[in-house]
Amino acid sequence: MDNNEDVEGGGGGIEDEFRAKLGRKYRPVVANDRAVLEMSSIDPGSSSSHKKVGSQANMHPNSASQVEIPANGGVNGTDREHKLELFGFDSLVNILGLKSMTSEQVVAPSSPREGEDVSSAYEPPRATDFKLGTLMGVFVPCLQNILGIIYYIRFTWIVGMAGIGESLLLVAFCGLCTFLTSISLSAIATNGAMKGGGPYYLIGRALGPEVGVSIGLCFFLGNAVAGSLYVLGAVETFLKAFPAAGMFRETITKVNNSTAAVGPIESPSSHDLQVYGIVVTLILCFIVFGGVKMINRVAPAFLIPVLFSLLCIYIGMFLTGKDDPTTGITGLSLKSFKDNWSSDYQFTNDAGIPDPEGKTYWNFNALVGLFFPAVTGIMAGSNRSASLKDTQRSIPVGTLTASLTTTAMYLISVLFFGALATRDKLLTDRLLTATIAWPFPAIVYIGIILSTLGAALQSLTGAPRLLAAIANDDILPVLNYFKVGDGHEPYIATLFTAFICIGCVVIGNLDLITPTITMFFLLCYSGVNLSCFLLDLLDAPSWRPRWKFHHWSLSLLGASLCIVIMFLISWSFTVVSLALASLIYYYVSIKGKAGDWGDGFKSAYFQLALRSLRSLGASQVHPKNWYPIPLIFCRPWGKLPENVPCHPKLADFANCMKKKGRGMSIFVSILDGDYHEHAEDAKVACKQLDTYIEYKNCEGVAEIVVAPNMAEGFRGIVQTMGLGNLKPNIVVMRYPEIWRRENLTEIPATFVGIINDCIVANKAVVIVKGLDEWPNEYQRQYGTIDLYWIVRDGGLMLLLSQLLLTKESFESCKIQVFCIAEEDSDAEELKADVKKFLYDLRMQAEVIVISMKSWDAKAEGAQQDDSLEAFTAAQRRIASYLAEMKSRAENEGTGLMADGKPVVVNEQQIEKFLYTTLKLNSTILRYSRMAAVVLVSLPPPPVNHPGYFYMEYMDLLVENVPRLLMVRGYRRDVVTLFT
Fold first, then answer.
1. Each residue of 222-236: pLDDT tens digit?
2. DSSP secondary structure string, 633-683?
3. pTM
């Protein structure tokens, strides 16, 4: 089942949904709802033993009974009975548990420290937020930006100057650059939920805050300057269509070298361009002040006439006949096609008219700089990422569709324009598109004006939001004036953008502005490509983009093309733009606030072990940079064959916890005895273990510790092993299945002590049951990987299931997530929340919610379970063990003692814990008997309970399950839905 189909909305909505959970109750679930699978009640044998298991038990301070839960949070108050009490305080049904994995601090860009409430930084979402879909949110803005002034008033001139052949090469060259950038953008944008800022957000989270801010500010300037380009194009077209509207004298340009009898060319006055340009900019600024909803209403009014004008141009191409030769329009002619195939580079004056005495000489490189703004605009949709319903779907589909559509239109137009008119006509008639349009030029004039105004509107919309996103990250204090709250419009940033746009309008020359825009856009595109290249090359566990059609080589090619185009256009402009970006980078590194966004460079430190300890220190690792570093506990419960220092399948399992073999494992074993006596034995054993690890092709190191006993040795290992952030974060060991069979009475206390040491040391725990049956790399598994997600573990269980799927032995399996709810009323909302959460984590899984409806109901009919016999036997053994403890305490005149320490026995609580594991085991056997592997939350050992009791609970939980992983996370998240 593909759960993507059931999820509405996008990456940005999950955060709001989880915040909203705090203020509403769950809706009741109807009896026949498929989301609820009632667990059948199993009579453990004594009807009286379950009637009153609800008494408050003595629990650990972190137990569920101690958690303060809001009365309106979907539970019945803080004094309710928690039926999953055995599993600790972080019950999954408590939505606050999932919340920390779906949140990211806004107040400070650094990662939240341990113990901080991540949710406290947020304010409730505004009910009036307006979200856009793929069409209006991405495709239309991109199309409006790409179909700008260059196509209408410069494209025919470019075809005349470069010829058809080189014009096709020019379009393909520039189009390939933006297409590859769109692929990289799609990959990064689908690797998690996006906030506002578009490409700045993506680059900053991938390459770090310094690079992100420097490129982001340059891209902001590019968008602001582009707005002036589009405004000037609209005004120039208006003044050429209506010369009487000009307030100043027009410029007359005579054509000196034309073979055709073409008269003087009239150009609008620069003063008219300036005056009208300022007025138009102010009008557009007021529209932008109306917000996204207003822009969304106005956008079709700009785009529809543009598309109609394009249709009129194409109709005019076919209807234009061979009129008077003096006009220069030949109609679609093979002779004109041949004549215009080759290039004719020459000098032009400031108006672009061929003039032997002109100051500007045009060649292919210069035309790249002039034409490239015609293919930019692919970031228009991502600039408004905060306003999109589903960024992970809308950005790739909308951006790539707009890019391919416009590139195809440009290529076709080159062929038609080249066959339509003489070269002189192409070079002298700057509004040839209007001249040939059917039925009359006025339609195209309107289309050109609305096209350029629409593109200007998109630029004035995206640029302020980009600046506001940079300011909201609080990296540069100087940008604090441009901060805006969630759901608010960036008014101050809009005014600042309009000021820059007006300043460029005053310049009044399109050909001087376009190279500047091109450099800023190319700098941003190269940043996006380099970000995708780095993330693809490192391939960290957090790198799981939904857009699969990408490769690091394509991103590297796209970045290289951007750099090549920059130098082709102008090495001087390239040096200036790079110098500006470098200055901003230097300023941010000195004055900016430190931020940890889990960028790719930090991931590289982990993989290459290059300055990782000095760069990262011992601070908390960001979830995007989190790598499993398992501590493989090789000391077996029992004996291994001679010269086999580690269970062979432990090494196979350690490899399953790494993505493509990346990561480090630490294999440890313990020698009992005195260190001075066994130091040399330890060195020999360490060398033997290291050789075995190498033989098993497992990346890792071997360590042997000498200690008086296993418990003391492990306690020393868990405290000291590793260095800085290279300390192991997961303890992996085998489940002691042999303890009862071989009567190893010391195992329960040691096993419980090891788990408690891991909890105190804040290490995750993975216990493998059925290790002998674990598959090697050549044994392909089929079926499902079933997760019984009961407590919030920071996403560790989910991440382990994803890592298993990357191995050949499990790649044919599918994931099923079983969420255990305590009440029926929890089930429906819990299922929707988990599905939405998995969707934004880019994880494909079927979600099934199981409601533990009743704990004291009797079995119905003659229904029996495989677990019932084991349950009765466990009751009998615990009763016998308890009787021995009481007898010993009476004889010695002391309180109850077990494992050398006093214990507290609550028989009702023991019965409830046994019944909890019985129900879970029964559920696992019912739904996952044929699963390839089952993962279940590991309950912590109850405080003041004998270790023997905990082993009985665990034996009952794993009974008849052939292959089981018991997982307990630690107080940190290992997955994040943010890119």
1. 888 888 888 887 888
2. E---SS---TT--S-HHHHHHHHHTSBTTBS-EEEEEEEES-HHHHHHHHH
3. 0.66
